[in-house]
Each structure stands twice: as structure tokens, then as C-alpha cells.
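Practice problem 4.
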């Protein structure tokens, strides 16, 4: 887990002023490529080569329920997300190969915090021998929600 302080959730460049592609352009280069990814992350999906059975999981972490900003940086949350999802695969008897990320954030969340989150995701996934297979971070549609 990261022990370095990161950018604050608010106070930087708000997501509200950015397109999804602007955010993806900042965070996708942080993730190492995988030979299993045939078509890299694109429109909310990627094409992955698999053999046999595939376990897919999704788990969510929520501000105020799963973490507090006073205690955790974006990178810390990235580490938590990777550990939590890989543990779900292991609990089903699987061998993790990658993770998919969906970011739903308040439009006032700073992009610097999101990049710090992505750095934590990259560090933790590389440490676990997996890669980030895809990321979606939908453009805000309202002042209070950053999801479609």
C-alpha cells in the first residue's frame, strides 16, 4: 500500500471540465500492457484472450463507507481496489490475470486525485502480476453525478 500523501480529492482540476478521453489519456499510460489483451481498452471494453473458464468480478469502494480522505490517498484507494478484487477471484479458486476499472466520481473530484488513484492501481496490479485490462470513467451528465 502507498504511504505517500497524494493530491486531494478536491481542490485541483475538476473532472467536470474534462471529457472522458482527457482523463483516459492521463491514466491509461500508467498501466502495463498484457499479452492477453488483443484489443486494448477502448469504448468501455477490451478484448481478452482466455483459455478455459473465466472468473469475472466487480466490487465497488465508496467514499465515506470504504475509505475516508483524511486517512487515504488516491494511491491508497487504488491498492485497496486491486487487493479487494483479486481476493474475490482467489476466493472462487481462480488465478487473477487482470482487472477492469469503473470510476464514478463527483464532477468536482480533482483529476490529480484520479491520476493518483490510477498510479495506485498500476503499482498494486503490477505487484500482483496482473494488468489493468480496461477503464471507464463516464463524462458527467449532471452537477452531482459523474456517471451515465
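Answer key:
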Amino acid at each position: 500500500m502507498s504511504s505517500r500523501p497524494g493530491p486531494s480529492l478536491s481542490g485541483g482540476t475538476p473532472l467536470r471540465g474534462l471529457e472522458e478521453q482527457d482523463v483516459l489519456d492521463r491514466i491509461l499510460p500508467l498501466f502495463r500492457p498484457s499479452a492477453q489483451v488483443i484489443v486494448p481498452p477502448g469504448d468501455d471494453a477490451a478484448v481478452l484472450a482466455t483459455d478455459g473458464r473465466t472468473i469475472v468480478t466487480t466490487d465497488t469502494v465508496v467514499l465515506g463507507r470504504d475509505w475516508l480522505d483524511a486517512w487515504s490517498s488516491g494511491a491508497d484507494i487504488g491498492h485497496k481496489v486491486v487487493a479487494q478484487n483479486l481476493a474475490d477471484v482467489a476466493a472462487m479458486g481462480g488465478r487473477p490475470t487482470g482487472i477492469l476499472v469503473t470510476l464514478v466520481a463527483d464532477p468536482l473530484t480533482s483529476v490529480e486525485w484520479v491520476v493518483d488513484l490510477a498510479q495506485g492501481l498500476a503499482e498494486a496490479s503490477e505487484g500482483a502480476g496482473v494488468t489493468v485490462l480496461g477503464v471507464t470513467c463516464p463524462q458527467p451528465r449532471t452537477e452531482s453525478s459523474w456517471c451515465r
